[in-house]
């Protein structure tokens, strides 16, 4: 695609000019936007860039490893990639906390603290990279009247790190253009085609208190769900699909024994803008297969439910 190819050349040239020999810091989440922004920057200024990836222990199964394989020292890019395994800090802070907004705040603040600590180690930073894209620019200009959920993503850091300027190489692009640029830069499809994943991660897909055990349950269930959806090839029209862990336990039976275990909720939505969404009609065979696998393979789960609710009145995520 020559148009995005020329975008890359032009942007790289502009970034070189702007940054000169300054030092650049990027919070890399492994999401499409921050990944594409990071690779563009690395093309422009090479090892003047440092990327920090904070693993808060609330990522999907294998995600931390996958991101590190692509962007770490063994991968094809030279990003001065630093992975911070901070899961213990996050689990500790989240102990006993059940209120959704409080959970979001804790995760967001802790994220900033961890990032800030890494930034300090690097020393003087001149530029901070943000993966802001065009829809973010428009949305933040709208001034929403009611906060439904306080948002956390890797874009929200500027006050906490001492730097001269923000660079936002993607601020004129729509999501599909960002994906195109990512493909042109050779970023694997697996990352470029990723569905949205919220900053607070699985923390908001576990209703109620977050524990290591619950993280394991939702990771396993979600992995099975995504695997079966991919196998069945039914993800074409889905905007987002994932498993969440309800806070409900119920009675079940296994062999001659009574169980009292958690219920997993499966969600799949069709949406164009994530402001409204419709629950997708997944084939029953797929749901049955996923359900059987989850109750058989994931310890601690004896019931699986499908969320048929639209947004509104529900939201896409559970918290
Ligand atoms: P809701 O649950 O509000 O989600 O219907 C709408 C879209 O936003 C994503 N989401 C987030 N993304 N930080 C993010 O970067 C967040 O804190 C956050 N909360 C929700 C959600 O996954 C969906 O795509």
What report would you give on this structure?
It comes from Schwartzia succinivorans DSM 10502. Keywords: ATP-binding, Glutamine amidotransferase, GMP biosynthesis, Ligase, Nucleotide-binding, Purine biosynthesis. The structure is a single chain. The model has no long low-confidence stretch (mean pLDDT 94). The chain has a five-stranded parallel sheet with strand order 3-2-1-4-5, sandwiched between helices. α1 crosses α7 (175-184), α4 (87-94) runs antiparallel to α5 and α9 (212-232) runs antiparallel to α10 (284-297). It is of the alpha/beta class. The chain starts with a helix and ends in a 13-residue tail after the last strand. α2 (32-45) links the parallel β1 and β2. The protein has helices at 2-19, 32-45, 63-71, 87-94, 100-122, 134-142, 175-184, 189-192, 212-232, 284-297; strands spanning 24-27, 49-55, 81-85, 127-129, 165-167, 240-254, 257-270, 278-279, 301-306. It folds into two domains: 2-192, HUPs (Rossmann fold, 3-Layer(aba) Sandwich), CATH 3.40.50; 205-306, GMP Synthetase, Chain A, domain 3 (2-Layer Sandwich), CATH 3.30.300.10. The protein contains ten helices and nine strands. Xanthosine-5'-monophosphate binds at residues 149, 151-153, 196, 198-200, 240, 274, 311, 315-317.
């Amino acid at each position: 695609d020559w148009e995005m190819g020329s975008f890359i050349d032009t942007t790289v040239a502009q970034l070189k000019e702007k940054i000169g020999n300054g030092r650049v810091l990027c919070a890399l989440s492994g999401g499409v936007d921050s990944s594409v922004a990071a690779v563009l920057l690395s093309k422009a200024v090479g090892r003047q860039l440092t990327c920090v990836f904070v693993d808060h222990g609330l990522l999907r199964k294998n995600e931390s490893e996958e991101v590190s394989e692509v962007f770490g020292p063994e991968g094809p890019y030279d990003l001065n990639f630093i992975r911070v395994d901070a899961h213990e800090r996050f689990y500790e802070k989240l102990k006993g906390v059940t209120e959704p907004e409080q959970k979001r705040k804790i995760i967001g603040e802790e994220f900033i603290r961890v990032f800030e600590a890494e930034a300090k180690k690097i020393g003087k930073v001149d530029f901070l990279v943000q993966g802001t894209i065009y829809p973010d620019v428009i949305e933040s200009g709208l001034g929403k009247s009611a906060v439904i959920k306080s948002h956390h993503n890797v874009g929200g850091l500027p006050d906490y790190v001492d730097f001269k300027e923000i660079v936002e190489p993607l601020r004129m692009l729509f999501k599909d253009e960002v994906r195109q640029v990512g493909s042109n830069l050779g970023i694997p499809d697996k990352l470029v085609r990723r569905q949205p994943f919220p900053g607070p991660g699985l923390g908001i897909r576990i209703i109620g208190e977050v524990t290591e055990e619950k993280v394991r349950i939702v990771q396993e269930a979600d992995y099975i769900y995504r695997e079966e959806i991919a196998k069945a090839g039914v993800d074409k029209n889905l905007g987002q699909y994932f498993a969440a862990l309800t806070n409900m336990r119920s009675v079940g039976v296994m062999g001659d024994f009574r169980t009292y275990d958690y219920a997993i909720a499966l969600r799949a939505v069709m949406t164009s803008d994530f402001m409204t969404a419709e629950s997708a009609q997944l084939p029953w065979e797929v749901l049955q297969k996923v359900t059987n696998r989850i109750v058989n393979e994931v310890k601690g789960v004896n019931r699986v439910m499908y969320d048929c609710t639209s947004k509104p009145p529900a939201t896409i995520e559970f918290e």
